[in-house]
Amino acid sequence: MGMEWTSAAALLLGGLMAMMLLGLPVAFAFLAVNLLGAVVFLGGEAGLGQLVRNAVGSVASFSLTPILFFVLMGAVMFHTGVALRAIDAVDRLIVRVPGRLAVVAIGAGTIFSAISGSTIATTALLGTLLLPQMLRRGYEPRMAMGPIMGIGGVDILIPPSALAVLLGSLAGISISKLLIAGIVPGVLLSAAFVGYIVIRCRLDPRLAPEGDVAPMGLWQRVGPFVRYVLPLAAIFVFVVGSMAAGWATPTESAALGAAAAIAVAGLYRMLSVASLVKALLETVTISGMILFIIVGSTTFSQLMAFSGATTGFVGLVTGWDLGAVALVLAIAGVLLVLGCFIDQVSMMMITLPFVLPVAQAAGIDPVWLGVVYLMCMQLGLLTPPFGLLLFTMKGVAPPGIAMGQIYAAASPYVILGFLLLLLIVALPSVVTWLPSVMLE
């Protein structure tokens, strides 16, 4: 215990980064460093026993259960094919707009964000269905790929968001408030994306040639939207509304949402045993992965605190006497840099042990800080070299598309996201207004 806090932080953080750079999965990297830390800081065998007790406690939290249900909601929609019908309905409804199919991608992606907890699934589905259509109609590849990746990131902001639940649980932020706080930024970001596409395609029509839209009657256009999109929107309203009204906890709302998603698929006669089994398996896989990472990261936070690294860091930062806005900007800067290199869950796990005590000492609104975190994680999905959605797009794009084109396609959406992040830092009410109206 005689070790300086800087040495302790270097040992734990340096060890963690080294493991990740060697390609070890995040959960195992945390486990390896935790074993080392338990021996060094918690006292050999007794420390290893404490490590096990901490691990069990970290995942026995009831507040983590919404993650499973939110993931299940999206998985049911994708595997039963209800999501495909919704895309077709949005496609029929949007006509005579510059960059029509790119706008359809934003519209469909926003709807999926409201029923799915999985960002990658949204990008993969839209990329598989809409990208070939856009390229076939002569869309410039960057205009075809950009909206699909951009809207995939919005999934983190609009509830139900598995990452928002995880962040709220780990950071002790009200999960109901955090989920509702993401709605306004998510809608603003979607609207900014649509505005960018329409203006860009109006200025340069070659980016998105206007295809022929099949003539249809009014009900042919509107009917599928009423039949397939409004029920999904109703599930979203039901999940968020039951939390806002205080009728249900986040866990109960998530469970009701998952049950409603299964019921809707059943009413459409699209639910089969095979599709339900696929959805359940995907839910178990994703939830299991998240829980493994939580086990490692919670113990890592405790080791950082016990070694004195957290206290030392808090003392250092509070000594700078930064204001709340400057401090949040500094935190966002660190998160944006980390987002270029590591995944979203790891970003959370590595930084929260330092950021939370500093934010509490400075009296920063936890919901405001939470949405700044979500915005930075959303941008991390799209920033080179390791943005997760960049690789998802590479996986579904035609073989001729180079990684450089994918980076270029994502860049306007990164800039728009960054501008929204600055707005949120400058005007916290963008985030805090809706939860205060709905929950207080």
Short description:
The protein has helices spanning 5-21, 26-41, 44-59, 65-80, 82-93, 100-113, 119-136, 141-154, 162-171, 175-181, 183-203, 218-244, 250-267, 273-306, 309-318, 324-339, 344-362, 366-380, 388-396, 403-426, 429-439.
Descriptive notes:
Helices cover 78% and strands 0% of the residues. By secondary structure, it is mostly helical. The longest helix is centred in the middle third of the chain and has 34 residues. The model has no long low-confidence stretch (mean pLDDT 83).
Defining key terms:
mainly alpha, globular
Poorly predicted ranges:
none
Main beta sheet strand tally, sense and closure: none
CA radius of gyration is 22 Å
C-alpha termini separation: 46 Å
Cα shape: globular
- Tell me the helix content: over 70%
Number of helical stretches of at least 4 residues: 21
Number of strands: 0
Structural class: mainly alpha
